[in-house]
Amino acid sequence: MKLSGLRCVLEVHRCGNHISAAAEALHTSQPGISKQIQQIEAEIGFPVFQRKRNRVVGLTEPGREVIAIAQRILNDVDSLQTLRDDYLDRAEGRLTIATTHTYARYVLPKVVERFIKQYPGVRLSLQQGNPTQICEAVESGEADIAIGTETMRPFPGLAMLPCFPVARSVIAKKGHAILRAKKLTLQEIARHPIISHDRVRSGSWKVMDAFHKQGIEPNVIFGAVDADVCKTYVELGLGIAILATVAVDPKHDHDLRARDVSHLFESSTTYVSLRRNTYLRRYAGHFIGLLAPELTPEVIRGELRRPLLLEKTPTAKVPTVKTARAKAAGG
User: Fold this and answer.
1) Any idea which fold 92-165+270-328 has?
2) Is residue 278 a contact partner of residue 304, using CB atoms and an 8 Å limit?
3) What is residue 270's DSSP assignment?
4) CATH topology of domain 3-72
5) Contact between residue 275 and residue 136 where contact means Cβ atoms under 8 Å apart
C-alpha cells in the first residue's frame, strides 16, 4: 500500500469529495487520483467512498475508519521526518500557526517577534480563521498549531491544551453614557445598540447566551468579522461592542474606552491545539512556551500521547495551569 494512495484518499475527503479539487491540491490529475483510490480499495477489499453515477458523494462506514487510520499513518511519517531534523539539530523548517484575528493582532506579535529572533531559519506563517476553522486546519495538516478559544464542535483527533482565560470589556466611544453608568448590568448594556462578532466566534455566542439566560434580547444592529472592524464602527458612534479586553490598545485606540464586564460575561479559555500522536519539533515547543511557559515540552508530549477516549470537548470553564500539568502527568 502506497503512502501516495493514502494521501489521495485523505485529500478527496478534505476537499468535500471533489476529486478535481484534490487533484489540484496534490498537483496531479483527476484520473491519477481515481486510479490511486481504486488501488487502495482493491487492496483493502471494500470501498472507501460512496458513489453515485461514478461520482464520490461520501464515505462508507468502514471508509470513516480508513480516513482515521490514514491520518495516523501520515502523521507518523511526518513525525519521522521532523525527528530526523531535530536529531540533526536543524533549527530550520516551517511552522504554520492557525489563529483568530484577536490573537494574531493582539496576543501573538511579541511572541512572534521573540521567536523569529531566536529561530531565523524557521519560516513562520499565520493562518487566520474562527476557532473551529483553525482547528480544522490543524486536523487536516494545513497548520501545525492552532491558538484560539473554544470551538463549536469537538475535535477528538487534537490535543487541546488550556493556557489562560480571556476576559471581556464593553468598548465604547469616549464620552458614551455606558462609561458613566454607576453599575454595569446586562439590562443597562442591552439598552444600547450593540456591534457584535458573528456567532461562530466563541466570544459572540457566549455573550449572547449570557443575555438570553436572563431573558434579555440585546439590540444587535451590526455583525462584524473581527475586533478591529467592530471598533471601527464603535468609533463612528453607531454603538458599543463587547470584546476581549486585550483587543483594546491604548496606544492606538485614542477615541475608545474599555470597561471590564468579566462579572457579567464568562471568560473564554485560550487553547493550544495540536494533532495527536505527532512528534513535536523543538522550535514548535519553544513557540508554545513563549506563549504559555507552563506548557513545557513534557506537559505537551503527555497530552499528545493521551488516548483519544479520554479527550473532552473544551468547555467554558477555565482550567488552571496546574490542571493541565496534572492531566499530562496522568493525574
Assistant:
1) D-Maltodextrin-Binding Protein; domain 2 (3.40.190)
2) yes
3) E
4) Arc Repressor Mutant, subunit A (1.10.10)
5) no
Q: What share of the chain is helix, strand, coil (3-state, %, to 5)?
A: 45, 20, 35
Secondary structure string (H, E, C) spanning 108-128:
CHHHHHHHHHHCCCEEEEEEE
Question: What digits encode the pLDDT tens for the residues 241-298?
Answer: 999 999 988 888 999 999 999 999 988 899 999 988 787 888 999 999 999 999 998 8
Rounded CA-CA distance 158/143 in Å is: 12
Q: Where are the beta strands (DSSP E) in the chain?
A: 49-52, 55-59, 93-99, 122-128, 145-148, 158-166, 168-173, 194-197, 220-224, 240-244, 256-260, 268-275
Cα(295)–Cα(258) distance, integer angstroms: 30
Contact (CB, 8 A) for 303 and 187? no
d(CA 321, CA 29): 48
Query: Which residue carries 494574531 as its cell?
Result: 104
| Helix, coil or strand: residue 215 | coil
| Model confidence pLDDT, tens digit, residues 166-193 | 999 999 999 999 999 999 999 999 999 9
| Other beta carbons less than 10 A from residue 275's beta carbon | 23
> Whole-model pTM?
0.71
